[in-house]
Amino acid sequence: MNDLSLNQLILTYIEGWKLKDREQILSTLDPACVIIESYGPTYRGKEMVGRWIDSWCAPGNIVDHWDVTSFFAGDESCFFEWVFECTYAGNRGGFEGASIARFSNDKIIYLREYAMAAASRYEWDG
Predict the structure, then answer these.
(1) Which of 43, 55, 85, 95 is geometrically suited to a Cys-Cys bond with 64, CB 3.0 to 4.6 A?
(2) CA 110 to CA 44: how far, in whole Å?
(3) pTM here?
(4) Residues forming beta bridges with residue 94, ordered by sequence position
(5) Rounded CA gap, 95 and 85, in Å?
(6) How many domains is the chain partitioned into structurally?
(7) Phi/psi class of residue 20: alpha, beta or left (left: φ > 0; alpha: ψ in -120 to 50)?
C-alpha cells in the first residue's frame, strides 16, 4: 500500500468512530485484527471489536473530535499522532495520543494507541 492508501484507511477508521458507523469501522479491519487501547483493553478479532463498538456507541456516547495531527508511513505500517475528545457516560474528556498501525491485505491488522500522561502539554521552564 502507498502512503496515501494507508492514510485513507486510518482516516476511514477514525471517521467511522465519529459517525458511530459500525460497518465502516469494521470494513477497515482484517478478520484477525488486534486493537490495544491506550489504557489497556485489548480486542482480538473483528467479532470482539464489533462488540466493543456496540458497547461504546451506547446512547449519549459521542466522539466529539478525533483529529490526526501528523502521519508517517512505512511499507506496511504507520505511526500517527492525534487529539481525541469524547463524551462518554455524560462526561466530556479528551487527550492527545499516538498510534502505531500495521496492515495486511489492505486492512488494519494491528492498532496500538498511546496517550500522553499529562492532562495537557506545557512548556518546561527549568
Answers:
(1) 85
(2) 9
(3) 0.93
(4) 85
(5) 7
(6) 1
(7) left
